[in-house]
Amino acid sequence: MSDKDQPTPESEKNPDSPVVTDEPATDAPEVDPHDARGERSRSLLREITSGDALAGVLAVFLAIFVGSVMIAAIDEGVHETAGYLTARPSDFFAAVWEAISGAYSAMFRGAVFNYNLTEPAQQWRPLTETLKFAGPLILGGLGVGLAFRASLFNIGGRGQMLVAGGAAGWVGFQLDLPLVVHLPLAVLVGMAAGALWGGLAGLLKARTGAHEVIVTIMLNYVGYYLLFWALTKEWLLKTPGSVNPKSPPMKDSAVLPDVLGEQFNLHFGFVLALIAVGVAWWLLNRSTLGYRIRAVGQNPHAARASGINVGRTYTVVMMIAGSLLGLAGVNQVLGTVPSGVSLDLDAGIGFDAITVALLGRSRPLGILAAGLLFGAFKAGGFTMQASENISVDLVLVVQSLIVLFLAAPPLVRAIFRLPAQEAK
Amino acid sequence: MSTVTAQPTPDSGGLAPDTAVTPTRGAGARKLPIALGVLTALLAGILLRSSHAGDTTFQLAAESDFVTLPDIVVPSGPTAWVMVVICLALTAEAVRRMLAHLRQPGWIPIAFAIAWMTGFLSWAAADGRIRLVSLLGGAVALAIPLVFGALGGVLGERAGVVNIAIEGQLLLGAFAAAITASSTGSPWAGLVAAAVAGALVALILGLFAITYFVDQVIVGVVLNVLVVGLTNFMFRQVLTPNAETLNSPERLRAFPIPILGDIPLIGPILFRQTPLVYVLYAVVALVAYALYRTRWGLRVRAVGEHPKAADTVGIKVNRTRYRTILLAGAIAGLGGAYFSLVSVAGFNREMTGGAGYIALAAVIFGKWDPIRATLAALLFGFATNLQGVLSAIGSPVPSQFMLMLPYLVTIFAVAGLVGRSRPPAADGVPYRQQ
What we know:
heterodimer; A: ABC transporter involved in vitamin B12 uptake, BtuC; B: mainly alpha; three-stranded mixed beta sheet; 16 helices; disordered N terminus
């Protein structure tokens, strides 16, 4: 055992609460506001010098390295040159370089800037695709991250998105309303459905102690089959005369408008995501509820002793988390894929959101950055698949490796033979 | 300590009920009579709303039986009502025992379940035919990966390691089984590879959760994503272009056991299955015996309940945990072979379809006990198969609601409505030696 992970004396005294968060002191609720600014810069300095930030960068580097190995391993040119590796090693390394650089430059062309085109609008189009993919990831990441701050693990993103998408979709094509009413109504109904689905897990935890990990996993499947059922009923979501489990397309009055005009796919959902980041930041750092959430997250027993209703906080935070993931589902149904509600409307975002929240360390601005990064991965991954014939699933591998390595800085240190972190 | 600032479950770790919120005091004694009463009323309500006329045939015999049992033909409506009366009687008995403060014996819910199911089936299959052998035998077959996964889950959690990565172990097991069985031409080699693949996922889980103290639930979830990404990637890049050599395994065929397989009713259900099922029987028996009757099992449970005490008497806590989750991973990985060697021949993207999460549900519903978890997994397999049978005979119950059942039952279970589930005390808590 490494000595740097020794429990603090407090937790030794009280084995019932082994909660040892290495949260910087800035987030502790009892910090004196006058001292907060100085404390923040000091802790930032400490974080950099103690090598946490370095470990983070190295974690990303390590994950991309593993991805590169996978790209090289399946490349035909590399296979051929490996046959005469000892005779002409330079051929082999050239082939490896070609495979890897080809893949990553394709990702760059798909995610940021396509230098193969001439017209500026087309050159920058990939960046708008990145933002389009980032929108629901940010929303979902906020939903998972907010729950993390109350030390709740919301794995129910998929179910919350499906239920919300179904509800918003129902409003989107069954009702006939003017745009100013229709779109907001569809968005709100979707958020409410997500809030209900998330809040259910919070309520069950508050009332019976049922663990939210189990309940949210199970609600994913209940939500899936509920949507499946709704897609077989014409008064709900079924397309009349069709056997496919898919609803009719959304009415134009309920579709999220384009932000940069017809030629780009970027829609208003990304703006909603930015607004949500601001709201979540205010909620966590400036509101009473946010204070309660953080207090419950750090130590529910202490929070209860100081008069916070822990159960109600659980329920409320899960409702907010559910509504944010619901908004991610709404973003898919009314923005990205308005051609109809289907069973795969979540597109894996419910689980991606967990990695986004972990990478963003459950802070709204961190989640914004992590969502943009993973959105770029996604947009670039599709281009890589199309032009280099490398499966977009590689992105999933790199993404999960980043989170794994990031969660275990001692492992990264050991791999790079860095000195162990000093005890604080 | 991990850099993941938000520690889910800071209180007790793992999946234990939260103690910071006061659970409502459910009167445990009242639950059974209430549940039975509600179910009886539900059955009576279904019968009142739409009564089918006609006969229901229960076919007991399989095609090639040594002794052929006759079909049982019963009038649909009256039989269902007789079953309602039996259910009522059992409910009354439960109420009597509750009022007299007696223990509720296990035979009451079992008898109730059989009577209720018989009544429901004779209503749902009016003018139809229920093939009991295929109904129950199919349930056993569908439950194979669930039971393997649940056993792996039980073992890991009894040693104090929460394993959300069952899904990943099943998927990588299925993947490894398909490749190995195809390239060697032997499905048996595929089984071995599946076990190794499951253990490999467990090793990564252990590295992060035991050695580096990363939150176990997070590692499990991320590992599942990693395995999905890895197998999808390999499937598209390697398996699909070389489908003949790498993804066309020989299927495991059903192998009837000579004498046991000829027992009427039981034989065709339990002993005319694939060899993987017989492996399963052995594994269930071994795990149940080893966990409760051997020194090894005592150590595993000690490490999961009170690691500090175990350490004090000289048990190597983390080494025991590593060994246990490797074994558990191998067992769960074996279950993965079902998908690519038994169910269909060959691997496909995300072919486990959430079975690992149902297995996790079975672990909890089975109260972290190998036998109960096995029964829970069988029950979930039965629910899935019943859905298939009912939709084939055109039942009025929407199939989606039948498929929802295992998940709903689990939510009720963790919410304490179906008896209290208590996980091992140190479940999910990393152990730091001092």
